[in-house]
């Protein structure tokens, strides 16, 4: 891809409307300093210096899409609790639409709280429930999503599944069916519970751990031929157009009809892998929405995932930084 072509691709992200469906959460950080051990138990005492709250889970995908210039529409179910007020405030702070968010008294708003000292995570505690949403909520949620698809005509739909109960097989089936009617690509960042429920989607993107668990195969990533064979079998069984698997420090692999691709990971100073999967699926979504070839979808996603790993905490990819890194890649490989 030439520099001019890459500029056109990144400029095209500006008018993209993307429906993001999945489990949203609040990522909270308590940041401070540890200088002594508690006299009550052999544990460190964290002297709190500041607290931060950020959008997380599927909402981090929305943040990544927004940072790349797109217009994400967030669809999820949260609790009727104090954290829901904070969640809506965080959405407002980021100028993200709450139009696809349902509030339920039977849910709680997921929060992951991390204790940080000197850039290191000491521990994390989670507040959440993970059972599936009720049939009544599911019906309301499905109707709202279908209405948004018809009204907005998004360029792509992405399922960001964190196994917290918002996404279920009936929801997946209804959304994918409507997307096919409207000729809208569908992409998935899966988790274990619904792993085999995304039949017929455009792009399915597990990480290596999820792929092994979902296929019940312990695959050696040093044997790429074996990896490709397993991926192609799964792609055919579930009728995906593309199957992309992130391989941690081994990079990223992808298969399509008569196509197998592997791109090694770029050498980087890894600070934190949190949120890297969100970034990968976000970039893949925009690239596929703009009809890029699979090779370019994977290249841009691979670069983006590596870039956010250099940052501490869950942060969206920087558009200019991604463009510059992608330009270097294409110049090296032209």
Question: How would you characterize the overall build of this protein?
Answer:
This protein has 10 helices and 13 strands. It has 334 residues and is an alpha/beta fold. It has a single domain, classed as 3-Layer(aba) Sandwich (UDP-N-acetylmuramoyl-L-alanine:D-glutamate ligase), CATH 3.40.1190.20. The strands form 2 sheets. A 9-stranded mixed β-sheet has the order 5-4-1-8-9-10-11-12-13, with helices on both faces. A hairpin with a 6-residue loop joins strand 2 and strand 3. It is globular, with a radius of gyration of 20 Å. It starts with a helix and ends with a helix. The mean pLDDT is 91.
List the helices and strands and how they pair.
Elements: H1 3-12, E1 17-22, E2 24-37, E3 44-57, H2 58-67, E4 71-79, H3 82-93, E5 97-104, E6 111-117, E7 120-127, H4 135-152, E8 156-160, H5 169-182, E9 186-189, E10 203-204, H6 208-215, H7 224-238, E11 242-246, E12 252-256, E13 259-263, H8 276-289, H9 294-308, H10 319-332
Parallel strand pairs: 1-4, 1-8, 2-6, 4-5, 8-9, 9-10, 10-11
Antiparallel strand pairs: 2-3, 6-7, 11-12, 12-13
Helix pairs in contact: 1-10, 2-8, 4-5, 8-9, 9-10
Q: What are the low-pLDDT stretches, counting only 5+ consecutive residues below 50?
A: none
- CATH architecture term: 3-Layer(aba) Sandwich
Determine the number of helices (DSSP H or I, runs of at least 4 residues). Answer: 10
Oligomer: single chain
Write down the overall geometry.
globular
Estimated radius of gyration:
20 Å
Largest sheet, if any? Answer: 9 strands, mixed
CATH class: Alpha Beta
Within CATH, the superfamily carries the name Ribokinase
What is the third-level CATH name, the topology? UDP-N-acetylmuramoyl-L-alanine:D-glutamate ligase
**Category from helices, strands and their pairing:** alpha/beta
Strand sequence of the main sheet, in spatial order?
A: 5-4-1-8-9-10-11-12-13
End-to-end Cα distance, whole Å, is 8 Å
Q: How many distinct folded domains?
A: 1
Helix-strand pattern: HEEEHEHEEEHEHEEHHEEEHHH
- The residue fraction in helices comes out at 25-40%
Mean pLDDT figure: 91
Count all strands and give the number.
Answer: 13
Beta content:
25-35%
